[in-house]
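PROTEIN FOLDING TASK:
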Amino acid sequence: MEQYRVNDAGDVCARLSGIEWEPFEPEQFGWASPGGRTTPDERRALDQLMALPSFEVVVAEGPRFVPGPRPARPVPWGSWKDGAAPPAAAESKGGVDGTLAYSDRLTDALGLVAQRLPVKPERSPFIVHDFVGGRRFEVSFRPPPLGPGGEGQVYVLDDGFAYKIGHTTGHVAARIAGLQTGNPRTIRAVATISPATDAVESHLHAAFGSWYLQGEWFRRGEIRAEVESAGGWEGFLLTHLPSGAWTITLYPGHS
């Protein structure tokens, strides 16, 4: 690996040229197929993937290879030579009878998993290989049932700057994956309220009107102070929700 440097996200970002390092775009390796590519906005760092609700990531040691251009002739899995290996790869269904996608960046492989698992949970777990860093990630997606009534759920998200109050009839992880595009700050789930229709969302928007920022986003500092006064998120939400039987799920880092 002395020929390449990686950034904090694990992507190859520089190559040694003579005695100096120069910027390097790993797409030049040519490993990614059209179906395995992501746009820059769709790439995900490991901490962003782990922040998605219902995602679980187990990290273990894995094989390490020096990356390089894809050989003209196919090479059996794991038999690559240093300097001619993929930087990353993702296998669905735990690597058994699933699909395989090579990636030129680790964040491409993780972004691909963030997109596909909420849409097709039956592909869980994905095995993501970081061949540059010698790591193996087992990524599982275990969402709660959406419920038979189709009401959906109201969610609270936090990007470190503001809170978002929204509604979805699908998985919150899929909603976050879409919202993360174009947002440089990692979006984390705070809480979900279910079963809840968009009328509950509108009720909370009205209740939080004095903290309104823009769109479905509300000022973070003022709400945090109210949450602390209420003894936590559950008490705070119950104070502002209409009467009813609510299931409130809190996510790690929030109480």
